[in-house]
Amino acid sequence: MKSEGGRSRVTSGSLMALYVCAGLLWLWAQEWLLAYFEVTEPQSTRWQISCFVVWLLATALAGGWLHRRKRGAERLRQETVQELELVVRHAPAGMARVHVGGAEIVWANAKLAGWLGRSVDSLRGQDFRVLVPVDDPQQVAQLMERLLDGSSDHFQVLRQCVHATTGKVTPVLCTTSRVAASGAHGPMALVCVLQDLSEMVCARDAMHRSETMLRMALEGSGNGVWEWDAREGRLNLSSGMSALLRYTGQDLARDFDFLQRLHPDDAPLVRLEVEQALERGNMLVSTARVLCFDGMYRWFRARGQAHKDVHGRLLRISGLLADQTASREAEERRRLAAAVVDNTIEGVIVTDARSRILSVNHSFVRLLGYSEAEILGQTPRMFKSGRHDKAFYDAMWASLYATGHWQGEIWNKRKNGEVFPERMSLSAVKDAAGVVTHYVCMFTDISAEKAREQQLEFLAHSDALTGLPNRTQFARLLGEAVERAQVTGRGMAVMLLNIDRFKDVNDSYGHSIGDEVLRHTAAQVQSALRAGDVIGRLAGDELCVVAQSLNARADAVEVAERLMAAAGKPWTTPDGLSVVVSVSVGICLYPEHALSPEDLLQGAHAAVYGAKSRGSNAWCFFHEDMTQAARERLALEARLRRALDLGHMRLYYQPQVDLATGRLVGAEALLRWLDPEQGLISPARFIPVAESSGVIGPLGIWVLNEACRQGQRWRDQGLPELTIAVNVSLHQFLLTDIVGATTQALTESGFPARLLELEITESALAEKPEEALFVLNRLREQGLRLAIDDFGTGYSSLAHLKRFPVDLLKIDQGFIRDIPNSADDMTISSSVIALGHAMGLKVLAEGVETREQLQFLQQKGCDCFQGYYCSRPLPAEDFARLLEKERAGLPQVEVQLSEADLGA
């Protein structure tokens, strides 16, 4: 039998006891055999000898067999001991036998002694715990307790072997087991086997360093590592991916769905690239926009490789993810910058630090005429114009060296030799060390700008059409002339020349011919000036002359007549058409009439109106009454504007009566000015001022609105409906939106369009018949009634007149006033009535004041009339009484004629 450790449990004493027992048993067996076979005395000796021989042979065989077994066991033991000794001696691990109590080393192998820098013999009796220390003694104590109480048969801890001479530390893994010191029940001992972990620790440190360097490289490059595990369907992401994707949660792999976060425009291409990479086994390279966790799309580039098993099944895909947003934006900025440079209208040159040209843009080639190949490697000195001296260039480079920038105007030369001005900006480009590496020059051709400046300079002081000094320059020259006259005491005159009927020239021949006539007239007048005289153009058809050094009025008249004669010279067109104009001259003398330049000009303006009142080609001296009249017109204009704002304007209404029945059919709205100081001001006084000043526009709109509002108020009161006629001035009809104003007035008031009648003068229709026809058609589309006022006083063409969509002709009161005393007026009135009826129009006579006039109009078949015979114009409240009378069915006037009247 053997013990658990492989050693036999049969001792020598056991064998001896076993042999004695076997001998005694044999003796008993011998006695039993003798008794069993009933051996007699003589035979017993022989039987005993035979049994002894058998015993002797049996024990000899048993002893031989046991000796043979012992020799085999000894030989096996020696081999085992030898093997164990070789293992202990040559094993790569350190070994030691240690007592349990004081941890003294019983024996140790050479490997352990080498690590400790000692001999094997010197280790015996040394404290193992001191020579091979452990990091955590408390942990070792707990493990030792478990080993000794049988809870475990070994334990492992990390220890350090410190070389006694060099101090080198060898990290080891110590496996400790318990054994008996000697005999089956001898004292416990420990066997410690130590494995060298130096290479493992070095490999681990190297791997840790590699991982650290790789992590730093990835973090430094801004890349993240990703891996798709196809077998487990799991996405593994590095820590750097959170920063790339702006993720702040706890589990990026769970929350990140790549396909869902792809930009919709990029998703199809990415899927195609992935499929192709998997199919062909190529490297996956894909760039797309991904929705980050901050809600922003950013550009990323994914690079990866698929890994498959031997059967071609996909195991995983791993790779890197890099944020390309900044690089793409930078590339886009570079592309845009390059596009801007290439397409800018400014020429751009880039040179090196030695001013050698490296590149130019398209505008440079266009502006200077050189091709890029002709100038690369050259210096900008080849563009010098020769207009700048050395000091100019020295100052330019001094500024560039001092500030790194220079900007200014410079003249350069094109390839064809043309010298041109340019506005140039030159900048130095420096590297991180502050050393100039390049120069960038941008320039713009300012030839056109210089030409415009010269033109503006000319226009600032000269008239563009005639080349004469303009109003501003003439005022300056006039001021200088007045200053000289004050010093010398000599007289002078300011003469304003206004071309007579110049509007007729423009209307007859066109504005281009009118300009030529004006230019010709100005040249003729300028050629007739004396030495020292000054001429300028003040307005469209106004020229002004300063005649200096005059002694008397006769001298001024002589100069004026010479100028008038020069202006009267005909101008002939290239087609042979001769155009002759005349001028009216207003003369204001210094110092007789005025002393200041402003007063002299004002006096000449006033005087020219006096000259025009005498007919064409006349001159007139200024007198104080002219200025007073002009001042009164200006004052009246200012008061008229205030009156409109303050509500001083009123509408009066004059009845329009049917000649057949005497009943009220309409009313003409007439404007009145109720001034708080002067009372009612005559329309003949303020209407011309309103026409000339432009106030007639807002004034006409007020009349239109007020007439519609009043008409609707009468309707709301249940009074009979009637047509309200409103006069429209020439300015309002042709120069304002009369259609829009009428629509607004009707809409705001609610007054029916069929009850509103607009009266347009015949002259307004003759002024611009085509434009008038367009406006009248738009008004008729609204349902208005249209009337031609003062018919017979204008010069309208019947061919045009029949095209106008009018409803009523109004005979001017000038043709009614002298009936029946004027045969001409009676003939004209009869013709107008007949013409109107022939054209299907109603006819109304204005200014009827007598019974005889009424009888005549009835005899000629006139439809309606208005005038003092029926009523003067009345305020709205008084006119309402006429409407009450009409509602009662009473005629406004008695229109029944007797047979005697009809006979007359």
Automatic annotation (TrEMBL):
Report which superkingdom the organism of origin falls in.
Bacteria
Q: Name one Pfam family in it.
A: EAL
Family matches, as SMART domains:
EAL, GGDEF, PAC, PAS
User: Which keywords has UniProt assigned to this entry?
Assistant: Membrane, Transmembrane, Transmembrane helix
- Indicate the segments forming the EAL domain, all copies: 633-887
Q: Where are the transmembrane segments?
A: 12-35, 47-67
GGDEF domain mapped to chain residues:
490-624
For the PAC domain, which residue ranges apply? Answer: 406-458
- PANTHER family recorded: BIOFILM ARCHITECTURE MAINTENANCE PROTEIN MBAA (PTHR44757:SF2), DIGUANYLATE CYCLASE DGCP (PTHR44757)
Name of the protein in its database record: EAL domain-containing protein
Q: Which InterPro entries match?
A: Biofilm_reg_signaling, EAL_dom, EAL_sf, GGDEF_dom, Nucleotide_cyclase, PAC, PAS, PAS-assoc_C
- The answer, when asked if Coiled coil is one of the entry's keywords, is no
Domain PAS residue range list: 210-281, 333-379
